Amino acid sequence: MDRRPFLKFSFLSFLSIQTPISRSETKYQFDFAKSKQGYLNRIQSIQNTGTIPIIDIESSYNPTFFDPESFVRAMDRNGIAQSCLSLDPQRGGSVWSDASNQLSVKFPDYFIPTGNGANDPAWTNNSNQFLDENERNISAQKIPLMGEFEFRHYSSPRQVQRGRDRDVNIAIDGSLGHRLFSFAHQTGIPFQIHYEIEDGLLAPLEKMLNQYPNAKVIWCHFAQIRYSSRSSIYSPEYLDALLDKYPNLYLDTAFGDSQSIYPLSGEPHARYWANQSAWNKLIISKPYRFLAALDLGGDRIDKLDLWTQKLRGFLNGLPEQTKEIVAYKSAWKLLFNEEIT
Ligand SMILES: [Zn+2]
Q1: What's the domain count of the chain?
Q2: Quick one: which of 195, 217, 220 has its CA closest to 292?
Q3: Among 124, 185, 243, 278, which residue has the fewest nearby CB atoms (within 10 Å)?
Q4: Which domain holds residue 247?
Protein backbone atom coordinates (compact mmCIF):
# COMPACT_ATOMS: atom_id res chain seq x y z
CA MET A 1 0.00 0.00 0.00
CA ASP A 2 1.18 3.51 -0.77
CA ARG A 3 2.17 4.97 2.60
CA ARG A 4 2.31 8.59 1.48
CA PRO A 5 -1.26 9.56 2.37
CA PHE A 6 -0.70 8.29 5.90
CA LEU A 7 2.58 10.15 6.28
CA LYS A 8 0.97 13.34 5.12
CA PHE A 9 -1.95 12.78 7.48
CA SER A 10 0.28 12.05 10.46
CA PHE A 11 2.31 15.15 9.83
CA LEU A 12 -0.80 17.30 9.75
CA SER A 13 -2.05 15.66 12.93
CA PHE A 14 1.24 16.38 14.58
CA LEU A 15 1.15 20.02 13.51
CA SER A 16 -2.35 20.53 14.75
CA ILE A 17 -1.54 19.44 18.29
CA GLN A 18 1.36 21.84 18.45
CA THR A 19 -0.50 24.92 17.32
CA PRO A 20 -3.64 26.30 18.91
CA ILE A 21 -6.55 26.56 16.49
CA SER A 22 -7.70 30.07 15.73
CA ARG A 23 -11.41 30.72 15.48
CA SER A 24 -11.36 31.31 11.73
CA GLU A 25 -9.59 28.01 11.05
CA THR A 26 -12.49 25.82 12.12
CA LYS A 27 -13.79 24.53 8.81
CA TYR A 28 -14.82 21.01 9.69
CA GLN A 29 -18.50 20.37 10.20
CA PHE A 30 -20.09 17.00 10.76
CA ASP A 31 -23.15 16.31 8.62
CA PHE A 32 -25.06 13.26 9.81
CA ALA A 33 -27.30 13.22 6.73
CA LYS A 34 -24.20 12.78 4.57
CA SER A 35 -22.52 10.23 6.83
CA LYS A 36 -25.55 8.13 7.65
CA GLN A 37 -25.65 5.81 4.64
CA GLY A 38 -21.94 5.01 4.87
CA TYR A 39 -22.35 4.12 8.55
CA LEU A 40 -25.38 1.92 7.80
CA ASN A 41 -23.65 0.18 4.88
CA ARG A 42 -20.79 -0.74 7.14
CA ILE A 43 -23.14 -2.02 9.84
CA GLN A 44 -24.93 -4.10 7.19
CA SER A 45 -21.73 -5.50 5.71
CA ILE A 46 -20.58 -6.70 9.16
CA GLN A 47 -24.00 -8.26 9.77
CA ASN A 48 -23.69 -10.07 6.45
CA THR A 49 -20.64 -11.90 7.77
CA GLY A 50 -22.69 -13.22 10.70
CA THR A 51 -21.01 -10.88 13.22
CA ILE A 52 -22.83 -8.44 15.44
CA PRO A 53 -21.53 -4.95 14.60
CA ILE A 54 -20.24 -2.82 17.46
CA ILE A 55 -20.23 0.94 17.86
CA ASP A 56 -17.47 1.75 20.33
CA ILE A 57 -18.81 4.72 22.29
CA GLU A 58 -15.63 5.37 24.24
CA SER A 59 -11.97 5.08 23.23
CA SER A 60 -9.17 7.59 22.98
CA TYR A 61 -5.76 7.91 21.35
CA ASN A 62 -2.46 9.70 21.49
CA PRO A 63 -2.09 11.42 18.09
CA THR A 64 1.70 11.31 18.14
CA PHE A 65 1.85 7.52 17.96
CA PHE A 66 -1.18 6.53 15.97
CA ASP A 67 -1.43 4.70 12.69
CA PRO A 68 -4.96 5.23 11.37
CA GLU A 69 -4.48 2.72 8.54
CA SER A 70 -3.70 -0.17 10.85
CA PHE A 71 -6.45 0.95 13.25
CA VAL A 72 -9.18 0.76 10.59
CA ARG A 73 -7.85 -2.61 9.45
CA ALA A 74 -8.19 -3.83 13.06
CA MET A 75 -11.77 -2.44 13.11
CA ASP A 76 -12.51 -4.49 9.97
CA ARG A 77 -11.04 -7.65 11.48
CA ASN A 78 -13.13 -7.29 14.63
CA GLY A 79 -16.49 -6.14 13.33
CA ILE A 80 -16.23 -2.68 14.87
CA ALA A 81 -18.61 -0.66 12.72
CA GLN A 82 -17.80 2.78 14.07
CA SER A 83 -15.49 4.18 16.68
CA CYS A 84 -16.09 7.30 18.77
CA LEU A 85 -12.38 7.90 19.12
CA SER A 86 -11.44 11.00 21.06
CA LEU A 87 -8.04 12.60 20.95
CA ASP A 88 -6.18 12.93 24.23
CA PRO A 89 -4.43 16.33 24.26
CA GLN A 90 -0.78 15.75 25.06
CA ARG A 91 1.47 17.32 27.66
CA GLY A 92 3.26 20.29 26.09
CA GLY A 93 0.74 20.52 23.23
CA SER A 94 -2.31 22.69 22.85
CA VAL A 95 -5.36 22.28 25.06
CA TRP A 96 -7.52 21.28 22.10
CA SER A 97 -7.01 19.72 18.70
CA ASP A 98 -9.47 18.80 15.97
CA ALA A 99 -7.09 16.26 14.42
CA SER A 100 -9.46 13.44 15.40
CA ASN A 101 -12.11 14.92 13.11
CA GLN A 102 -9.75 14.45 10.20
CA LEU A 103 -10.20 10.73 10.80
CA SER A 104 -13.87 11.18 9.92
CA VAL A 105 -12.86 13.04 6.78
CA LYS A 106 -10.42 10.37 5.67
CA PHE A 107 -12.48 7.35 6.82
CA PRO A 108 -16.05 8.68 6.86
CA ASP A 109 -17.70 5.28 7.42
CA TYR A 110 -15.49 4.34 10.39
CA PHE A 111 -15.44 7.29 12.78
CA ILE A 112 -18.10 9.27 14.59
CA PRO A 113 -16.58 12.63 15.48
CA THR A 114 -16.05 12.97 19.21
CA GLY A 115 -14.70 15.82 21.34
CA ASN A 116 -11.30 15.64 22.98
CA GLY A 117 -10.71 13.61 26.11
CA ALA A 118 -10.85 15.81 29.20
CA ASN A 119 -7.91 14.39 31.09
CA ASP A 120 -4.67 15.36 32.73
CA PRO A 121 -3.10 17.86 32.12
CA ALA A 122 -5.23 19.69 29.50
CA TRP A 123 -8.40 19.46 31.58
CA THR A 124 -6.93 19.40 35.08
CA ASN A 125 -4.50 22.31 34.60
CA ASN A 126 -6.50 24.47 32.17
CA SER A 127 -10.04 23.51 33.01
CA ASN A 128 -11.89 26.64 31.93
CA GLN A 129 -9.81 27.00 28.79
CA PHE A 130 -10.59 23.37 27.98
CA LEU A 131 -14.30 24.06 28.45
CA ASP A 132 -14.04 27.18 26.24
CA GLU A 133 -12.55 25.09 23.45
CA ASN A 134 -14.95 22.21 24.06
CA GLU A 135 -18.01 24.44 23.79
CA ARG A 136 -16.72 26.34 20.77
CA ASN A 137 -15.59 23.31 18.77
CA ILE A 138 -18.48 21.01 19.64
CA SER A 139 -20.96 23.71 18.58
CA ALA A 140 -19.14 25.01 15.48
CA GLN A 141 -18.26 21.57 14.15
CA LYS A 142 -21.61 19.95 15.05
CA ILE A 143 -19.84 17.12 16.86
CA PRO A 144 -22.46 14.67 18.19
CA LEU A 145 -20.55 13.49 21.28
CA MET A 146 -18.19 15.03 23.83
CA GLY A 147 -15.20 13.13 25.21
CA GLU A 148 -14.64 11.58 28.62
CA PHE A 149 -14.37 14.11 31.43
CA GLU A 150 -12.37 12.94 34.41
CA PHE A 151 -13.96 14.07 37.64
CA ARG A 152 -12.83 11.34 40.03
CA HIS A 153 -10.17 9.09 38.60
CA TYR A 154 -7.71 6.84 40.38
CA SER A 155 -4.59 5.65 38.58
CA SER A 156 -5.35 2.98 36.01
CA PRO A 157 -3.72 -0.44 36.53
CA ARG A 158 -1.22 0.35 33.75
CA GLN A 159 -0.33 3.68 35.34
CA VAL A 160 0.25 1.93 38.65
CA GLN A 161 2.65 -0.41 36.82
CA ARG A 162 4.49 2.57 35.38
CA GLY A 163 4.64 4.19 38.79
CA ARG A 164 2.58 7.16 37.72
CA ASP A 165 0.20 8.51 40.27
CA ARG A 166 -2.93 10.04 38.83
CA ASP A 167 -5.54 11.03 41.30
CA VAL A 168 -7.97 13.40 39.66
CA ASN A 169 -10.52 14.89 41.99
CA ILE A 170 -12.71 17.63 40.54
CA ALA A 171 -16.06 18.17 42.25
CA ILE A 172 -18.81 17.22 39.83
CA ASP A 173 -21.11 19.77 41.50
CA GLY A 174 -18.44 22.50 41.48
CA SER A 175 -18.30 25.37 38.99
CA LEU A 176 -16.69 23.28 36.23
CA GLY A 177 -19.30 20.55 36.58
CA HIS A 178 -22.11 23.11 36.44
CA ARG A 179 -20.66 24.67 33.31
CA LEU A 180 -20.36 21.28 31.55
CA PHE A 181 -23.79 20.00 32.59
CA SER A 182 -25.36 23.31 31.66
CA PHE A 183 -23.80 23.22 28.16
CA ALA A 184 -24.97 19.61 27.68
CA HIS A 185 -28.44 20.50 29.00
CA GLN A 186 -28.77 23.35 26.50
CA THR A 187 -27.37 21.54 23.46
CA GLY A 188 -28.55 17.97 24.12
CA ILE A 189 -25.08 16.68 23.16
CA PRO A 190 -24.04 13.73 25.34
CA PHE A 191 -20.81 13.69 27.32
CA GLN A 192 -18.89 10.97 29.13
CA ILE A 193 -17.67 11.02 32.70
CA HIS A 194 -15.04 9.04 34.52
CA TYR A 195 -16.35 9.03 38.06
CA GLU A 196 -15.33 6.36 40.54
CA ILE A 197 -18.22 4.57 42.20
CA GLU A 198 -18.08 5.60 45.85
CA ASP A 199 -20.76 6.30 48.43
CA GLY A 200 -19.73 9.93 48.95
CA LEU A 201 -19.79 10.71 45.23
CA LEU A 202 -23.30 9.48 44.48
CA ALA A 203 -25.30 12.35 46.01
CA PRO A 204 -23.41 15.10 44.11
CA LEU A 205 -23.96 13.23 40.83
CA GLU A 206 -27.67 12.81 41.56
CA LYS A 207 -27.91 16.50 42.40
CA MET A 208 -26.47 17.38 38.97
CA LEU A 209 -28.67 14.89 37.09
CA ASN A 210 -31.65 16.37 38.85
CA GLN A 211 -30.70 19.97 38.13
CA TYR A 212 -29.90 19.37 34.43
CA PRO A 213 -32.53 16.89 33.20
CA ASN A 214 -31.64 17.35 29.53
CA ALA A 215 -27.92 16.70 30.03
CA LYS A 216 -27.21 13.26 28.57
CA VAL A 217 -24.55 11.69 30.74
CA ILE A 218 -22.62 8.54 29.88
CA TRP A 219 -21.15 7.20 33.10
CA CYS A 220 -18.17 5.19 31.91
CA HIS A 221 -17.07 1.83 33.29
CA PHE A 222 -20.31 0.30 34.53
CA ALA A 223 -19.94 -1.43 37.92
CA GLN A 224 -16.20 -0.76 38.19
CA ILE A 225 -15.44 -0.33 41.88
CA ARG A 226 -11.82 0.00 42.90
CA TYR A 227 -12.25 -0.14 46.69
CA SER A 228 -15.24 -2.11 47.97
CA SER A 229 -14.88 -0.51 51.42
CA ARG A 230 -15.78 2.88 49.87
CA SER A 231 -18.83 1.62 48.02
CA SER A 232 -21.74 0.08 49.89
CA ILE A 233 -24.68 1.71 48.06
CA TYR A 234 -24.15 0.93 44.35
CA SER A 235 -25.91 -2.31 43.41
CA PRO A 236 -28.21 -3.57 40.63
CA GLU A 237 -31.18 -2.26 42.66
CA TYR A 238 -29.59 1.15 43.22
CA LEU A 239 -28.65 1.54 39.54
CA ASP A 240 -32.09 0.38 38.45
CA ALA A 241 -33.72 3.08 40.59
CA LEU A 242 -31.21 5.68 39.40
CA LEU A 243 -31.97 4.92 35.74
CA ASP A 244 -35.69 5.20 36.48
CA LYS A 245 -35.20 8.54 38.18
CA TYR A 246 -32.89 10.02 35.53
CA PRO A 247 -33.88 9.09 31.96
CA ASN A 248 -30.83 10.83 30.54
CA LEU A 249 -28.28 8.68 32.33
CA TYR A 250 -26.40 6.03 30.34
CA LEU A 251 -23.66 3.53 31.19
CA ASP A 252 -20.77 2.44 29.08
CA THR A 253 -19.79 -1.18 29.48
CA ALA A 254 -15.99 -0.86 29.41
CA PHE A 255 -14.80 -2.83 32.42
CA GLY A 256 -12.15 -5.44 33.10
CA ASP A 257 -12.50 -9.17 32.62
CA SER A 258 -13.22 -11.54 35.50
CA GLN A 259 -9.51 -11.98 36.25
CA SER A 260 -8.71 -8.27 36.35
CA ILE A 261 -7.41 -7.09 39.73
CA TYR A 262 -7.01 -3.44 40.68
CA PRO A 263 -3.41 -3.38 41.95
CA LEU A 264 -3.81 -0.65 44.59
CA SER A 265 -6.61 -2.45 46.43
CA GLY A 266 -5.88 -6.03 45.36
CA GLU A 267 -9.59 -6.44 44.54
CA PRO A 268 -11.32 -7.58 41.34
CA HIS A 269 -12.68 -4.16 40.31
CA ALA A 270 -15.05 -5.27 37.53
CA ARG A 271 -17.92 -6.11 39.89
CA TYR A 272 -20.14 -7.31 37.06
CA TRP A 273 -18.68 -10.81 37.19
CA ALA A 274 -19.49 -11.46 40.85
CA ASN A 275 -23.19 -10.82 40.29
CA GLN A 276 -23.62 -11.44 36.60
CA SER A 277 -27.23 -12.61 36.62
CA ALA A 278 -28.52 -9.62 38.58
CA TRP A 279 -26.61 -7.14 36.39
CA ASN A 280 -27.79 -8.90 33.23
CA LYS A 281 -31.37 -8.71 34.46
CA LEU A 282 -30.97 -4.94 34.78
CA ILE A 283 -29.37 -4.60 31.33
CA ILE A 284 -32.11 -6.74 29.76
CA SER A 285 -34.78 -4.53 31.37
CA LYS A 286 -33.19 -1.27 30.10
CA PRO A 287 -30.97 -2.21 27.15
CA TYR A 288 -30.95 1.23 25.52
CA ARG A 289 -29.23 2.68 28.58
CA PHE A 290 -26.13 0.50 28.13
CA LEU A 291 -23.50 1.16 25.48
CA ALA A 292 -20.72 -1.04 24.15
CA ALA A 293 -17.27 0.44 24.74
CA LEU A 294 -13.68 -0.72 24.30
CA ASP A 295 -11.96 2.02 26.30
CA LEU A 296 -8.83 1.85 24.16
CA GLY A 297 -6.30 4.50 25.09
CA GLY A 298 -2.94 5.90 24.08
CA ASP A 299 -1.08 3.10 25.88
CA ARG A 300 -3.25 0.29 24.50
CA ILE A 301 -4.40 1.50 21.09
CA ASP A 302 -2.85 -1.61 19.51
CA LYS A 303 -5.00 -3.91 21.67
CA LEU A 304 -8.18 -3.61 19.65
CA ASP A 305 -8.28 -7.36 18.84
CA LEU A 306 -7.95 -8.50 22.45
CA TRP A 307 -10.20 -5.79 23.89
CA THR A 308 -12.93 -6.62 21.36
CA GLN A 309 -12.65 -10.29 22.25
CA LYS A 310 -13.26 -9.36 25.91
CA LEU A 311 -16.16 -7.05 25.06
CA ARG A 312 -17.76 -9.78 22.96
CA GLY A 313 -17.27 -12.18 25.88
CA PHE A 314 -19.51 -9.91 27.96
CA LEU A 315 -22.01 -9.31 25.13
CA ASN A 316 -22.33 -13.04 24.44
CA GLY A 317 -23.70 -13.53 27.96
CA LEU A 318 -26.76 -11.45 26.98
CA PRO A 319 -29.84 -12.62 25.07
CA GLU A 320 -29.63 -12.04 21.31
CA GLN A 321 -31.95 -9.03 21.17
CA THR A 322 -30.32 -7.28 24.13
CA LYS A 323 -26.86 -7.99 22.76
CA GLU A 324 -27.68 -6.22 19.49
CA ILE A 325 -29.07 -3.20 21.29
CA VAL A 326 -26.07 -2.83 23.60
CA ALA A 327 -23.58 -3.54 20.78
CA TYR A 328 -24.68 -0.72 18.47
CA LYS A 329 -28.37 0.17 18.50
CA SER A 330 -28.29 2.05 21.80
CA ALA A 331 -25.37 4.22 20.65
CA TRP A 332 -27.13 5.00 17.38
CA LYS A 333 -30.28 6.05 19.20
CA LEU A 334 -28.44 8.16 21.73
CA LEU A 335 -26.24 9.95 19.20
CA PHE A 336 -28.64 10.35 16.29
CA ASN A 337 -32.08 10.27 17.93
CA GLU A 338 -33.36 7.49 15.73
CA GLU A 339 -33.67 3.74 16.00
CA ILE A 340 -32.10 1.09 13.84
CA THR A 341 -34.63 -1.70 13.51
ZN1 LIG B 1 -12.39 6.18 32.06
Answers
A1: 1
A2: 220
A3: 278
A4: 31-336
